[in-house]
Amino acid sequence: MKKQQKRKYKCGVVSILGLPNAGKSTFINNIIKKKISIISSKVQTTRDVIKGILTNEEDQIIFIDTPGLTLNKSYLNRKISKSIYNSSVQSNINLIMFDSNTEITKNKKNLFSKLIDKKKKNFLVINKVDLVKKHKLLNISKELNSIHNFDETFYISALKKIGFKDLLVHLKRNIPEGLWLYSKKETTDQKLEFTISEITREKIFQLMNQEIPYSVKIKTKIIEKINIVKIFQTIFVNKKSQKPILLGRNGNKIKEIGMRARRDIEKKLCKKIYLDILISVDDKHHKNYENH
């Protein structure tokens, strides 16, 4: 009788790095097939390092969605730069993503080169291929590979899920053997309170344009009842003047934010929810809430 071969399990960490609006969050959501990271046209919507976990029969890939790197020297950007560096250090492979629909400028080249860790495997991922002609894609690949000779180059559309199959085959081939870090059912390392806070933050960015800064924070408390989930959120702004902007005329803006957030949260939880949103300038009375 033939001896049954022992399964070889593989587990690897893959950082998704790139400039702002390269499509990193869309990519992680569509490859995991769940909403893990929020999406907005605003630069650096992703403020925290977020993990998306993809597991099949023998392989587990932990994707890390990182904020986009910019030249801004603010405290927030320095903090973000540090988080990008830390995620790159802990990864087995770095996916360096570039939006093919943008121009390659000198500043972009400088920033792009900072994302490359020469001690790791670096895969170039050229995104939004559905928007650009083939000859332009080849020129972009040539120019970016002149900055660094990438181990592999892939052409994808994160939005339309083009090129995922080939990329996944190469990732599975290059991750190391090892025990899984998460159970098969887990798709993210984030707590539910964080995910729900992020959904509401996404709606704020979608509806507020430039009026509300990135420093907006949301704290979420969840109370589960038999027939309904009650969710209480407080949106914290920096200045008193920002509160009426967020409320809108006759409270119309915050109602729209709440309506859109509730729709997405119900989809996430597969349950009816009651959502209560408050706006505050000072968080000292809300210490019992889960921090975003």
In short:
This protein has 292 residues and is α/β, with parallel strands linked by helices. It has helices at 24-32, 75-90, 106-114, 134-147, 164-174, 192-208, 242-247, 252-269; strands spanning 10-18, 50-55, 59-65, 93-99, 121-127, 152-155, 217-224, 229-236, 273-280.
Task: Please provide a written account of the structure.
There is one protein chain. The protein folds into two domains: 10-174, Rossmann fold; 192-280, GMP Synthetase, Chain A, domain 3, CATH 3.30.300.20. Helix content is 34%, strand content 22%. The chain has helices at 24-32, 75-90, 106-114, 134-147, 164-174, 192-208, 242-247, 252-269; strands at residues 10-18, 50-55, 59-65, 93-99, 121-127, 152-155, 217-224, 229-236, 273-280. The longest helix is centred in the C-terminal third of the chain and has 18 residues, at 252-269. The relative contact order is 0.13.
